Structures are given as structure tokens and as C-alpha cells.
Amino acid sequence: MKESYNPKDIENKWRKDWDEKKLYQVEVDNNKEKYYVLEMFPYPSGRIHMGHIRNYTIGDVTARYKRTRGFNVLHPIGWDAFGLPAENAAIERGVHPAKWTYENIEQMKAQLKKLGYSYDWTREIATCDPTYYKWEQMVFTHMYQKGLAYQKSTTVNWCPSCETVLANEQVEDGQCWRCGSEVELKEMAGWFLKTTEYTEELLEWADKLKDGWPERVLSMQKNWIGKSTGAEIEFKLHDTIGEEDIVKVFTTRPDTVFGVTYMSLAPEHPLVEELIKGKPEEEEVLEFVNRVKKQSNLERVADGAKKEGVFTGAYAINPFTHLSIPIYVANFVLFEYGTGIIMCVPAHDQRDFEFAKEYNLPIRVVIQPEGVELDPHTMKEAYVEPGVMVNSQQFSDLESATAKENIVEFIEQNGLGEKQINYRLRDWGISRQRYWGTPIPIIYCDKCGAVPVPDEDLPVELPLDIEFTGKGGSPLSKVESFVNTTCPDCGDPAKRETDTMDTFVESSWYFLRYASPKYTQGIFNKDEVSYWLSVDQYIGGIEHAILHLLYARFFTKALRDLGMCDLDEPFKNLLTQGMVIKDGTKMSKSVGNIVDPDDMIAKYGADTVRLFIMFAAPVNRDLDWSDEGVEGSFRFLNRVWRLIFDVYDKIEQVKGKQVEPSKISKSAKELLTKVHKTIKKVTDDLDRFQFNTAIAAVMELLNDTSRFKPDGQDDLPVLREAVEAMIRLLYPMAPHVSEELWHELGYDNTLVDMQWITWNEELVQSAAINIVIQINGKVRSQITMDSDSDQDQMKEAALLDEKVQSFIAGKEPKKVIVVPKRLVNIVV
RNA sequence: GCCGAAGUGGCGGAAUUUGGUAGACGCGCUGGACUCAGAAUCCAGUGGGCAUUGCGCUCGUGGGGGUUCAAAUCCCCCCUUCGGCACCA
């Protein structure tokens, strides 16, 4: 055995060995319980960063650990390979996106391999490969045939810098999630996936997932879906417009309907024009509408933006009070939500209140809080809480909660509207006006309309000979040979759709493809998918809480309904790891606080990097990168190495020799107890993903073992047992050095395939235990007792203790509380 | 504004699952050994205050109250930080 630990010598050696033995290649085995651990696959940017390493190390430790627990572990990796950076590289440097992407993949793959991750590389996929996106195109056409994909022209989010449309989920604070440019609104045709078809199911399952998913993520998703229960109520117009004589509003507060004193509609609403036609207000309203429309979304919703509006000259009738109420156009009404028209109750809605004050509109109180008399003239703000109904005819004097139900019932019985639920969630707009993505497999024919490309003609491959100018719309639209085709239905000349799909589509189903990545007869081999799926443990960053994780959930349900799989949910358990930060902020090029993984591995080896990143913080919290901390982890592995080097001769002679408990010294007994306690603790911690404390426990074991002085030959097997346990407990985190040391101890099997070390519960319960003695709740003394002492013995021993005697000084204890094996509290 | 998470030494963090010795483990720092010297390594110490002749005593987990023999842990109120959503009717 070499005197010093040199990771360079051993890491390559073992990786090669594991590779050659194909240890990580797994197959369906119905006799074995499976465990599918998956980390969110990377975008091939070219470089691995510390965030990746944290993510993949958590996954790898889990995969290795579960394997030692007897599971058939699926641990795949691949590349989320479509996306804009590849296209930008093409525009800026003239490299083809495909070349750029595949070269990046090679580089990153080499980096990942150096970290010793236990991936089954035979299952590697790249989403930009036609054999992958072919199936995505088929899913799309099948969705289209089932009505789950459709085309519409609507107002979309447009990123002027990326020159493409963004889905609602991809706009953050009015800015593009990718580049941060301010998003513009644009009227445009595009393809949509019907996420709203699954709104209720997504919500329902959000509750069922709560044992396995962080509450934070689920609440973010629920928040995003934004369910509100209420009613749609019809208001008659004072003057009929064409055929129309009613307008519908959505409200969550039907109990306030007697308080409606005006209505407002969104400036974009088509009804505006009709309402004002020929009226004296026409010009003023049009001016207002145009002014508001010119404002960016950001300006309109900005903090403290004033509530503004203008009277249309039209009136409606409150169906409950039968009073005429004016109709306004108001800047705070959203066209996209509900019906784009709202009933306004200034007494009980803060926005309506502010607006009413501004334009001197009447305020009508219909709900009174207990003990206070609301006066419309002196109210400073709207009263939005529940209370007792007033001024509401037959509903007066009821609790508002009761009245809410009664009024909805009344509305339905009298044909004034119906109970309704509204959601914030919109359908997913997936059209992107870019090149490097999955072509949307649709052909436009003058005669037949939008025709899906038949299954047998898929994939619609991306043409590779293309020029990148970065200007003038979708690059595909300029490739004649791509655009011009014939209609699959009638054979006439036709044109292809030139938009590509949002790259979030690829990541919505890749986890299923891993089960049978090379299958050619269909999207999935059903047997393999039903064996491996769902994902038992998914691991990734919190930034995908809504985007990817919601899309993937939707997609899985859609695939199920297309008959392509049997899953309700893709990910049984989700772990969201925190960011890796340095000097208080996220690592980034612009701040200049990036730590290069290659440098770290070159300096300390992969095991040290893995160990540090697992030790420095609990997985779900942000991790503060510390160069000194890495040194510490390296020091620890060196100490393990040196310990074994130092005791090598002693433990070599006792290989395979059992510990004989009756013959060992007191300190050996203590060490033996520590060993088994540590095995138990590390096992518990790994089961709970508490890697930091698991590592701390192994460090404690190292400290105790280093201090241990064997007293005679009979103590040596204990020392050996401690060393062996240390290596095996360390293995999931630091596999290379563990494997090396294991072989140094004279074994020739691999730890990869070895079963997890078990503890002996009898040895965990040591013979002598420490009992704390408190007086009035304060620790005053400690005594050592046999672990099987009963409560009376403990009490007796405590009262006889010298220090206790001096503290109670002859006083009679009022009460003595005994906690078995722990403490005695004497109350005087 | 609404929803969620979190506040513990100089720092990262243990102990919260089950109320029972607060500060494990690591970093940093201090002192010592080794060395011509340094690096590395090893040993000892390391929450504050008091006492240091020794046993020790006392305060202490964001703040205030409460429950309990006993609270970082449970309950109520408040403060701060972070994250998400936000004119969603």
C-alpha cells in the first residue's frame, strides 16, 4: 500500500474497471425490485458547472446506495439538446448548431465521466436526434387528432431579442426567462397544447403527491393554476346591441351582487366598439383605449399604477336590484381572464372602491362586519371580509358565506347564470419561430387545410443546409426544399409549417424514453416502461418548479390518454436541490466567482469534490462554496488513507477473523458500539437524503478509530471492523477511494455490487450508558449506568449522587421524572 | 397584498422526525510539538460573561408571552430575511 493518497492514480483506474465490467448497464428484471433515479438532464452548453455537479452527485450517491440495498437501479443521462444558444452560436460564429451541440456533448460527457457517475451510458439520448424527435412529432399529430393540440391566432408573448414567442410560464416579471428582454404582446397564429384539459387532474394529483414532493413546489404549481370558484352572472344591457342583449361576468363574490353599482370591461374587449358606436362618448373612449393599448404590460400593472377608466355611455341592469348601472372601460380589467368584463362592487372590492372614489360612483354596502356599521360616505377602504348580509332583499340577515351559496342557487334557478370555476392556467403555446427545434409536423394545403404528417412519413427532419442570418423570421421558412411539399391527403402542392416546438416539449417525456431508448417499433416499449416507470426519485433545481415540472406532468397525462403509457404522474418523489453560491451570490461569469470543476478535480480528485458538495449543506438549501472547505474534505480522505496505512500490518493479519466480544478491552467495546451506531446513523441519513450528517458521522468514526489503541491481539478484529465499515459507508459519496482501499484490504469483489453493510442492534445498545441528572430542569450531574437499569434503579442512583445531594441539601424532592436510558429530573 | 420557507457560535451547519446534556461534524482562529525556517502533519483549546485554587456558576437558539418537571423543538403575538404569485374580479 502506498503511503499517501493520490487520487489521480486510483480514479482513472477504477472508472476504467467499472466501465469494462459494464456494471451500470441494467435490464428489466422482474425478479428484482426496480428503483429509477433521475437527475434533470443538462442543456449541452459546453461546460459542466457546480450546480450540475451538485445535482448529479446527489443522484449518483442515491443510485449507488439503492443498488447496495438490492434494487435494480436505472440511472440514465442524456441531453436536452435543442435550444437557442446553439442557433446563436451559428449566427455569431458560423458554426452549425448540430456541430456545436454534438461537440459540446462530447466535452461535457468527458467531464461527467471524470466524476465517476454510475450512469448507464448505453441509454444516452440527445433530443436533437431525429430518432428522438420523430416520436415527439408523432405525439403531436396524435394530440392534434384528439383535439389536444390546436392552432389559434391570439395575443402572444414575443421576445424581441430571441425573436420568438414565449409561453406564459416563460415570462417572468414581464421579461423573457432566457435573456431578460422585455416581452412584447403580439397578435399571432400558433400551435397550442391543451394543458387546460387537465387542470383539475393536475390539481387533484398535486394533493396526492404531497408525500413525495416539496410543499413549496406544489404550492407554486397550485398558485400558477390559480383556481377560483364563483359564478358567471348575466347582466341585461339597457339597449340591445344587434342580437346581443346581455353581458356575462365572472365573480368569486356572488354574495356581493346587490352591491354592484357599475361594470367595467377591458380596453381590448370587442364589445367596447359596439357599446360606444354613435354615442357622444365614442371619441373619448377610443382615445382612452388607444392610450392604454400602447402601454406595455409592465407599465399597466406597475406598482401603484392608477386605476383609470372612462364611461361608455351605455348602461346595464343589475338583475337583483333592477337598477341601471353605468358601463365603464377600465385599465385594470384583464381581457384574458374570465369574460373580460366585471361587475363592480366598490363597497367590497378594493380596486372597485378606488375606481369609484376617483369617478364618484355610488357605493352600496351589502355586507356588514360584526359590531361596526359601515357607512359608504366615510369608508376608507373596501370591506372584503365575510359578514352579515344587508340591503339584499330576501338574502338580508344571512351570513355572507351562506348567502353566497343561496344566491348562486337562485341564479341557476332563474336562468341568470351558473356556478363557475375559473383558472389562471392557459393552454401551452409551443410554436417557436426558430430553427434549432423539433419541426411541427403539419402541412398546409389550400384544399384540405392543416394536415398532420402521417406516421409513416415521420420524422420531418430538420434540413441541415441552411443559412443563419439572425434576421427576418423563422430560418426554416427560407428553405424552399423544406417548405414546398405535397398534401398527404390530396397530393396537391402544399407548404410545411415552419415553426418549431418549444424545447420544453422534449423534456416533457424524455424520462419515459430512457426505459427503451433505442426502441424503433413505437415511442415506448410498453413492458419496459411499465417496469421502470414512474421515476422513483427525481432531482433538480427549484427553478423548474412550474415550467418543466408542470409541462412534464401534463404531457404524461396526455400520453396516457393517447394510449402510449399507463402513467398518471411521472415523478413519485421530487428533490429540489439548492443553488451553489459563492461570496453570497450565484456563481456567474459576470460576477467572476465561478469555480471550475475541472480545476478542482485536477487538484483534489473527483471524490473530494463529490464529498465536499454533499457535506457542505443540506441538499435542499443553498450551498456556499468554500475553497477551505474543499481542502477540509481532501484532508479527511487523506486521514482515512493514512489511518489504514498506519494500521495496515495489524489488520492484515486478522482478515476474516470474528470479533470475540467477551475477550476485547473496554475501549474496543466502545469502538465497536460506535461502529454499529455509525452504520445505523448513516443508513438512516442516506434514506432521508441527509448526506451532510451521514458524512459527519463517518468523520466521527474516523476520529474515534484514529484515537483507538488496541489492547492485545483480540482487539485487532475490532479495529479491522471499524476500518471496513468506514470504507463501505463512504463508498456512495467517494466511490473511487473506497474501492481502492477495499481492494487494499485484500478483497477482490467490487463495492458497486456489494450489499449494504448492516448493523447489529445489540451492539448499538452499549452496556454502559450515560445518564443525565437534572435538578429543576438544569443539568447538574451525570452518572454511568447499565443500559438495562430500570426506572427505580435510575431514580435511586440519581438521588445518591454526591452532587445531587449537595444541591438538594436535605430538602425532600417534590417529584422525580425518569426518562429511561436518558435522564432523571429531580424537582425540589 | 396573498401563499410558502427560514432565522442557532467568527463561518457552513448539528440537534426539530420522537420536547429530555444546545452547538455534533467541518472551516476559521489561538497555543503547542516537529523544522534552521516554512509548508504539510500531529496534539490541545475555541458561544458570551463571571470564577479561575479546584469543583464550577450564570446567560444564551430573531423578539415578547404561554404550556410543561423540562422548549431551538409545541401554542399565541410580533420582527427580519429569502422564494413564489400578484389589478385573476
List keywords for this structure.
828 residues, alpha+beta, four-stranded parallel beta sheet, 26 helices, globular, RNA-binding
Q: How is the topology of this model organized?
A:
Layout: H1 7-20, E1 34-39, H2 50-68, E2 72-74, E3 78-79, H3 84-93, H4 97-114, E4 125-126, H5 130-145, E5 149-159, E6 164-166, E7 171-172, E8 175-176, E9 184-193, H6 199-208, H7 215-225, E10 228-241, E11 244-251, E12 262-265, H8 271-276, H9 282-294, H10 297-301, E13 309-317, E14 324-330, E15 341-344, H11 350-359, E16 367-368, E17 388-389, H12 400-413, E18 417-422, E19 428-429, E20 431-432, E21 442-445, E22 449-452, H13 480-483, E23 484-486, E24 493-496, E25 500-501, H14 510-513, H15 526-532, E26 537-541, H16 547-561, E27 574-577, E28 580-582, E29 585-586, H17 597-604, H18 606-615, E30 623-624, H19 627-652, H20 666-687, H21 691-707, H22 716-730, H23 735-744, H24 761-764, E31 768-775, E32 778-786, H25 791-800, H26 802-808, E33 815-819, E34 823-827
Parallel strand pairs: 1-2, 1-26, 3-4, 12-14, 26-27, 28-30, 31-34
Antiparallel strand pairs: 5-6, 5-9, 7-8, 9-19, 10-11, 10-13, 10-18, 12-15, 13-14, 16-17, 20-25, 21-22, 21-24, 23-24, 28-29, 31-32, 33-34
The structure holds one RNA strand of 89 nucleotides.
